[in-house]
TrEMBL record:
Residues 147-402 form the Major facilitator superfamily (MFS) profile domain. SUPFAM superfamilies: MFS general substrate transporter (SSF103473). It is a multi-pass membrane protein. PROSITE patterns: MFS. The lineage of its organism: Bacteria, Bacillati, Actinomycetota, Actinomycetes, Micrococcales. GO terms for molecular function: transmembrane transporter activity. CDD domains: MFS_MefA_like. It comes from Intrasporangium chromatireducens Q5-1. The chain crosses the membrane at residues 18-37, 49-71, 77-95, 115-137, 143-162, 199-222, 228-247, 268-289, 368-386. It is found in: Cell inner membrane. InterPro entries: MFS_dom (IPR020846), MFS_trans_sf (IPR036259), TM_effector (IPR010290). This is MFS transporter. Keywords: Cell membrane, Membrane, Transmembrane, Transmembrane helix, Transport. GO terms for cellular component: plasma membrane.
Amino acid sequence: MTNTAVGLHIYDLTQSTFMVSLVAWFSLVPMIAAGLYGGAIADRFDRRAVALIASVVAWLSTVSLATVAWGRLETVWVFYVITTVNAVAATIASATRQAITPRLLPVSLLPQAAALNGIAMGFMVTLGPAAAGVLVARVGYEWTYTVDVLLFVFGFLGLWTLPSIQPERTPDGRVMSGLAAVRHGLRYLREAPNTRMSFVVDIIAMTFGQPIVLFPAVGAIVLGGGAVTVGLLTASYAVGSIVSSVFSGRVTGARWQGRAIRAAITSYGLAILGLGVALAVVTLGGWSVRSSDFADVNVWGLVASCGCLAWAGGSDNISAIFRTTILQAAVPDAIRGRIQGIFTVVVSGGPRVGQMFAGSLAAVSVTWLPPLVGGALVVLLVWVAVARVPSFREYDALDPQP
């Protein structure tokens, strides 16, 4: 909710989409550092304490936004600084929470926990922006930030009730910190093919199958409908994620999780390919609508595109359930925080690279080409990558190996 409100606030101050986009770019490098070093911190200190402290910092950044808004102190650089602090704290908190989960549940329940997390994430990206839009329009930025300050308090309650969770030590009893700990985590990945491959297949999917940057153009010059179309396309992906989690009961019991990931990402690539086909049919068939009025939207094209994106969201979520489970079940507790930190970096950075691919290709060609080519590349590259690592293809949930 706050991220959406900040974007709207900066646009109101500057009338520049570019200035809004700088929020993500200013925070990117600090987020990468936070993922790497934050994971090392989670592997050295009480994880409950690390998660609480990081959450307090994130909460204070939201308090700062409310203070700036109420005090009429709005300047663009202030928003960049506060949102960067928030992103850093949230990255550390996220990596630490993921490292905590396997200490609270048996391995057999980790897929179900990941599915519940998928439901939470789905609601976050659908209800959060919608709530921000309504609150900003009705009561202004001051109350929008204040509401989130109050809601944030509930986030502390779950963490506060946890016991102390000290990370386990490596077999040789060494305690590393700083850059040495980060290097140790990266070395571990080189020696852990299944864990490494879970990152590789996600990077492939996000690099070539991330069409969200195209949505404004789709709403403006392909399907029509403007901002409403963009909102429906975005929401469809999240709805697919929620539905797949709600009905994932039988799926989460899959034993051969490497094959399940390959199947899910193949399904994701086909869904993105389907989106490209739908947009191509509308464009090449001469049915494009250049209107921001939703009453003029190409209904067939919108329904087909939303269906493909819901399919993609569900497939991506199933992949995420098993990738998360492999990280939590196969990685030793002593190094789990660092690996979760690297995972957070991949999840945060991958979509940005994907947006660059889609945006650059669309700039020199047509809007429908990036999802068409990207979806095909996702399918092809995932099958090639998995074929090169037989241990990932044969990964057995009953005998998790990194």
